[in-house]
Amino acid sequence: MSVERMDGLVAVLDAIRSDNGITQSRLAQRVGLGRTVVAQRVAHLEAAGLVVQDGLGPSNGGRAPRLLRLRDRAGLVAGADIGATGMAVGLADLSGRVVAQVHEQVDVADGPDVVLGRVEELVDRLLAGLADPPPLWAIGVGVPGPVEFATSRPVAPPIMPGWDGHPIRERLSGRFAVPVWVDNDVNVLALGELRTNPAAARAGDLLYLKIGTGIGAGLVSGGRLHRGVNGCAGDIGHVAVAEADAVICRCGNVGCLEAVAGGAALARDGRRLAESGASPGMAEVLAATGDLTAADVTAAAERGDPAARAMLARAGRLVGGTLATLVSFYNPGLVVLGGGVVHAGDHVLAAIRESVYRRSLPLATRTLRIEPSVLGEAAGLAGAVHLALDNLFTPERLARWLPAGSPSGRPELAAAPERVPA
Amino acid sequence: MSVERMDGLVAVLDAIRSDNGITQSRLAQRVGLGRTVVAQRVAHLEAAGLVVQDGLGPSNGGRAPRLLRLRDRAGLVAGADIGATGMAVGLADLSGRVVAQVHEQVDVADGPDVVLGRVEELVDRLLAGLADPPPLWAIGVGVPGPVEFATSRPVAPPIMPGWDGHPIRERLSGRFAVPVWVDNDVNVLALGELRTNPAAARAGDLLYLKIGTGIGAGLVSGGRLHRGVNGCAGDIGHVAVAEADAVICRCGNVGCLEAVAGGAALARDGRRLAESGASPGMAEVLAATGDLTAADVTAAAERGDPAARAMLARAGRLVGGTLATLVSFYNPGLVVLGGGVVHAGDHVLAAIRESVYRRSLPLATRTLRIEPSVLGEAAGLAGAVHLALDNLFTPERLARWLPAGSPSGRPELAAAPERVPA
């Protein structure tokens, strides 16, 4: 079927995807198409096995209208949220609901063959664990480094040795014969919040700030990811921080955000406090384990260690200072905080908020909310799954997918395709 | 005519607006609609007097196809680009081509009654100067302060006393009986670049940085303005600058960008250099006029004054440091520089560029270009005009605008409406 005949088809499908259980008249209103056109498009989508009429809506006096639903069990998408030291792999139905998932330790520095090989095994295992699984239609992947979105290849990722330029899409697509999309972990987290956290969806303009080993942001503008022309928007780990100490960063510059407030900086400063005797609690941990991590500092602060608390509050102020600039510049409705910082307690959140409210334009903070992620790490897998779903249903792909000929009446329900057209 | 019947109408009109002289088959491809639907929509637009068939395109062997053009003389839009000390008011046809304009001095601090009264007089005068003018359909306005876009009202604008909350839309709409849109000056400049500078249109993700008395940015994401949830995105005059002196800003904070690199800061520092004897050239100007402005500093630098040059280069580095953060965060393809800085010579531009390339993420500067505006202040009037054009043609407005009944064949060319439906 030609693309020309498919006008409005994707819009109709997207409206049913985002408002599952919609009546046909409300659908026509929402997509701004006439009822006849919408009925034809719905018939196409039914013929393709993507949409079903199921249940009855409230009557307006006449016959109760049938509700249109995504046939969300028609196909599956896989998501892989690959972090520096762990990953989540899952399967989801077409509504984005995760139906099977597994989390495990992984060292991304083991390189793409090891890590992607493991992703493939886990997808196979999850598929095998489902009784009568529908076909796999697409895969979405998040990785902890910059990605050129158009080609799905990492670009000089600092903590992913061996991954630079690796053809992740071609590898997974070759193995599973489905389309694949790859993005950096923070964009994937932002997308997960946008699609599954109602407050994020309402905000429209959203800033996701991940503060962990690295520090990065995901930007949403008008309900869609802003990736920038090279796909690296939000890569703020090495911006210069006002009022910061002159710490030399691994990148060679001075006073980078990551070098004064990232996980390695917390570990470094915590060790200094432990060794100087300023924090007997952290000194104990260091003596017992021979090492001190950012998580140890956070744990010490939670136990009430004053030195650890002061250190985290200072890191919060430095992050907040940069965030204040970004808030004035971008004017988001919601800032979602993720990464290790969400375990660091309310005093860090308070320090971040205070800096933002002190330094941002008053108008930009009038309705701004700054909240730790309620989804936490689950946003990563949700985002990977929605990355696949958001890109899967294009006019071209749907056109090749649909049965030939234009169904004039109600078609027979066709089987969903085993294979997604390329 | 109901909105439901208008599916694709705005898309068809927008495609003809942006690709004037398009064939019907290319139009169908571009908007992704079937040829029959497109032919009907084109007939509607012809009936409304908005589109004409004019000229022949290249033949593909058969009959040469007719070209579709916007009937750009069907109506006029007015634009007003109001600055702190001057304004431009103009009339444009529906393609955005300015057909009449006037520039004059104005003091925005005289308040909305004086300034908008003058805008009204100038629009009247320009209309009276056109032989047989088509009807006025819309007005777009740029003002030098924050605006709540939805209501078109200024929000606590620092250099616009008397304008806070002023109902600019209601006033001009009441006077001319046309729809009115208002935005801040930097967004209007960014929109002007986007719509009339081919390099800006190609960039897609654009950052317009105006460095004058104030410092502000306009953001374009994926070809549309990113205004933020309160309409104040880009308001960066008071972000904290790394490596800046501890200058106290009029806002009460320390080290604000505007306080160290804005026009008032240049005048202040220039006066200090003049008085200390470090710059005999600027001392002469100060003695002769009793005052020293940012323009005087720029002029001194252009004459080769070393102290003025060093000062401007330092301001360029400070602006560049903040811009580096914004480039890493936003990853634009093009940064357009506007405001007084474009007259300050290549050494300032070089200082800005050097800071950005030194401190931004390498991937974010791989294809980045940083250019002074080629349109200059003309971008403001162009942007005001396009602000009106971009918002004028909604499905609802077109539906009320079109003649009743569905033209099945080629309709008679209807007269364009004298009045735009509200």
Automatic annotation (TrEMBL), chains A, B:
What keywords are annotated for this sequence in UniProt?
Kinase, Transferase
| Signal peptide positions (record) | none
UniProt xrefs under PROSITE patterns: ROK
Species this chain originates from? Geodermatophilus normandii
Could you say which protein family the record assigns here?
Belongs to the ROK (NagC/XylR) family.
**Name the record gives this protein:** Glucokinase-like ROK family protein
Gene Ontology MF terms: kinase activity
